[in-house]
Amino acid sequence: MPAEDSRAPRAGRGMRVGASRAGRAGRAVGRGAVAGLRAAGRGGRAGARRARAYAQSEGAGESGLSRVVELHFVNLAGDAALTVSLAGTIFAIPTDEARGQVAQFLLLTMAPFALLAPFVGPLLDRFRHGRRWAIGTTLALRAFLCWVLADAVARDSAWLFPAALGCLVASRAYAVTRASAVPRLLPPGFSLVSANSRSALAGVAGMAVGGSLAVGAARIGPEWSLRLAFAIYVVGTVLAIRLPARVDSALGERGLEDTVEIPVRGRTAPRRPLGRVRAKVAALPTAVLAALCSAMGTRLLIGFLTLFVAFLMREHPLPGLSGTVTLGLVVAAAGAGNALGTVIGNLLARRRPEAIISSALLVTVAAALATALAYSLWTLLALGLVAGLSSQLVKVGTDAVVQRDVAESVRTRVFAWVETSLQMAWVVGGAIGIALPLNPQLGFGVLAGLLVLVLLLSVWVRVSRAHHPARA
Q1: Local structure of 268: helix, strand or coil
Q2: In CATH, which of 1.10.287, 1.20.1250, 2.60.40, 1.10.1740 is domain 62-249?
Q3: Alpha carbon separation from 14 to 3, 7, 183, 311 (Å, rounded)
Q4: What is the pLDDT of residues 394-451, one digit of tens each?
Q5: Domain residue spans in the chain?
């Protein structure tokens, strides 16, 4: 008994010592976690300050350009959250049924642009004194539709595809209205290429932040990531309305088709009545039209790659890899190429844009041919990387050509019309991707052939217009 009595106090003291040590360890871990969170917070705030300082540098803060850059960050953060929320929609239903639904989705998506493209100019003319509200409307509409989508996803409602369609159309409308606003906010001596490169970098950061937050929210439920997108779009709506009043200025603007003159027997005569789209094409300088052809080709590639690879990986995944993993790698490669293209485009801002566009298009054709002839994971990843890189480089080069060769009085209209054409090219590429059989050699062979035709078309534009100096 005495021995047992002596062991009891020692056991009690041991338990108290262990508890004390555990408490100290717990407090140390807690202090470390708090310190880590504080350090992360300080790092995040420091990064945000540096990003804001970069956005406001070189007079962008005074001109209001930095506000457009910040708005673009928020817009793409919302788009990334929306994309994450709906990422499983296509893969949740059988492939044949999904292709039919997506085909209808793309048809309905293309229809508004096919019908409205000839009227985009007059539509923007109507809003030229209210561009801030037009941009804000595209964000507010997406906020409302995201709230509808959250309920549709939770209840498996039939409103899922119509609401997603509305979000896509509103996103394309944002791109068009923003393209018409940016030239109004350029600081003195600041090129549009640099402005778009700065916005593109902000967009990449916005996609990373919005996508990361949406992944965390989606763990609770897919409807919560949509509610996150709703909140982000609401913030974007407020930022759009708070853009500088200069965005609404229409001083000196004219319609592009008002500048058309057609050569008649060595002299120029006033333009005869033409369709609005044909008149705009006729009015574009040769370099601009050739660049637009190339840009539409690379945008068609992005649309094709997005949907064709998505269905191909579901039906015929590569050996040893799941289709989802492969698709994720291709998307990551395209995103890396887009970011790399933004950086390279900014560095090459003073180089001849035609050389940048031609080089990027040639590399794209080579990558598509390599994928068709030697289909594998590595050629697929290379094509994704080249697609993102070339799309961004060609867009930067096209912006530079427009800024160089188009009169300031119609430059804003040209950018809006070019953006509309690129959005339609994406939809056409996606439609081709879901219409073709899921055969990689056939699919990528057709893609390579289309890109070769785009290359030949851009060359033909230059050659055919060489005999019409008035149009060049």
Answers
A1: strand
A2: 1.20.1250
A3: 16, 10, 75, 64
A4: 988 888 888 778 876 676 677 777 877 887 888 888 889 888 888 999 999 999 999 9
A5: 62-249, 276-472
